[in-house]
Amino acid sequence: MFKRCSFRVGLLLVALAGTRSFADDPLADRARAFVKYHESKIRPLEIAVNNAWWEANTTGKESDFASKEDAQNRLDAALAKSEPFARLKAIYQGQLKDPLLARQIEVLYLMYLEKQVDPSVLKRISARANSIEKAFNVYRAKVGERQYSDSEVRKVLLQSKDSAERKSFWEASKGVGAKVERELKELVLLRNEAARRAGFSDFHVMQLHLNEQNQKDVLKLFDELDELTRRPFAEAKARIDAKLASQYGIGVAELRPWHYHDPFFQQAPAVYDINLDAAFAKVDILKICRAFYDGIGLPIEDVLRRSSLYEQPGKSPHAFCTDIDRDGDVRVLANIKPNEYWMSTMLHELGHAVYSSKNIPQSVPYVLRSDSHILATEGVAMMFERFSKNADWLRQMGVRVENPESYNRAGALMRRNQLLIFSRWCQVMLRFEVALYRKPDQDLNKLWWDLVERYQLLRRPEGRNAPDYASKIHVVSAPAYYHNYMMGELFACQLHHAIARKVLKSDNPSTAIYSRNKAVGAFMQKYVFDPGRTLDWQQLTKHATGEPLNAKAFAAEFSGN
Ligand SMILES: [Zn+2]
């Protein structure tokens, strides 16, 4: 699919082992010199960005956020310089014989290309994006005479049984869309302008190309996913709708988007009879994580030592994992509480941690010493996170669950609903963004609700004509990215099934669990970690699972229920 991706896995691994020499290639000298330039000039800037990012998120101090922005600007400026890019482009356009070197140049080329935007266009893009993000930060939903924060709106959508109240809060939360609509449309045109100057038909097409993806292929994969999830989703939603309608005392036909538990119906409404949190009230989540990752042969003690794991004033309330230097300094930021959410979140973040320079061999060159793609590392993290909803796994980890059968039933149902609902929501996001950049002057209000009705089976509020798409901040701040969450989930299921088949010899992969089995870690090491980014995400998926990325394993999780 990409013109320079024709080398084979076997060749790469041979090159990695250093048993072949390509020293007589004159172009190779220039390529090696460029890689050396990158490692000496750009690598320190990258490490500085990662350190500054960590500081800002752990302290929350204004000055640390300013340093983080400075560090990022220094890195961006270095990558944007025209002279090194010209040198890199000439090497990229040549024919390197050494596949490992060619792969490094390819990865570098895409990385530098992303920053080659005309400075005047870039400045206008940043100004619009910042102004919109600020508008999101200060926006408060106004209901009656009072203003409400985002979390207050969410609380009403989670708890209120009063349809009129729900409707007024939902509508107020969408109000930010109208405030940013004009600027967002300008931003889309500017992004398209930058893309056209770089030779792409629009911004979405360019972003996917920069991330080693192709819009046509991604859409094809989402069509396949649509086919496989349409019916199970409709059935799951019908059950949820019946419960919601009875809770609100209305008919199913009267349900509208404000009757779901979040503003976009991207999460499964909490309509279950059992609360998973009770099992974690007296549990040491870190102890379980340690025991689990130790048990599969991927210990994480060193990561925990460097991490910031509990709440502190000013600290980011979220969770993430970062590889500071691609030299093994890997850390997790979290705010652990004894509940199911943090059990699953810690399994997730530590999944990122094991798939990092901690385990990717030092023999892989710096440029390629990372995960193969964002969707692959998200996939690995999602694969481990699933176990917190399984009572048998918890028992293996020494956690007492009161009523394991009902825990498993509720856990499986929650997971199934969550995956189905999220997959339909991702369909809306991907298809909206594709159409938005392809034809920005169409009726976007209508397009949004057409997609929501088609994929999420929600009913458009009668007579509504508002820019509701513009109330989703990802459209502004993480454009052309959302599909990766879904592809990560497909990768997670496909990899889990491969482990179940090849390592556990299980004939029911969907329900397979493991805890004390070092062969799982050995499989991950060999088939996922060892290649680093020498393989792109398609090659890695094939290498690890024997098949290209597809939706079959994901869909198998819903069969039999
Ligand atoms: Zn993640």
Can you describe what's shown?
The protein contains 22 helices and 4 strands. The chain is globular. It is mainly alpha-helical. The model is unreliable at 1-15 (pLDDT under 50). Zinc ion binds at residues 348, 352, 378, 381.
Our measurement of the CA-to-CA distance between the termini, rounded to an integer number of angstroms, reads 37 Å
Q: H/E element string?
A: HHHHHHEEHHHHHHEEHHHHHHHHHH
Radius of gyration: 24 Å
Question: Would you tell me the overall average pLDDT?
Answer: 92
Bound molecules: zinc ion
Keywords:
561 residues, mainly alpha, 22 helices, 61% helix, globular, binds zinc ion
Q: Topology, pairings included?
A:
Elements: H1 9-17, H2 26-59, H3 62-80, H4 82-93, H5 99-113, H6 119-138, E1 141-143, E2 146-148, H7 150-159, H8 163-197, H9 203-210, H10 215-248, H11 285-295, H12 301-306, E3 320-323, E4 330-333, H13 340-354, H14 374-385, H15 391-396, H16 404-438, H17 444-456, H18 473-477, H19 483-502, H20 518-529, H21 537-545, H22 552-556
Helix pairs in contact: 2-3, 2-4, 2-5, 4-5, 6-8, 7-8, 8-9, 10-16, 11-13, 13-14, 14-19, 16-17, 16-19
Q: What's a quick, concise take on this entry?
A:
The protein contains 22 helices and four strands. It is mainly α.
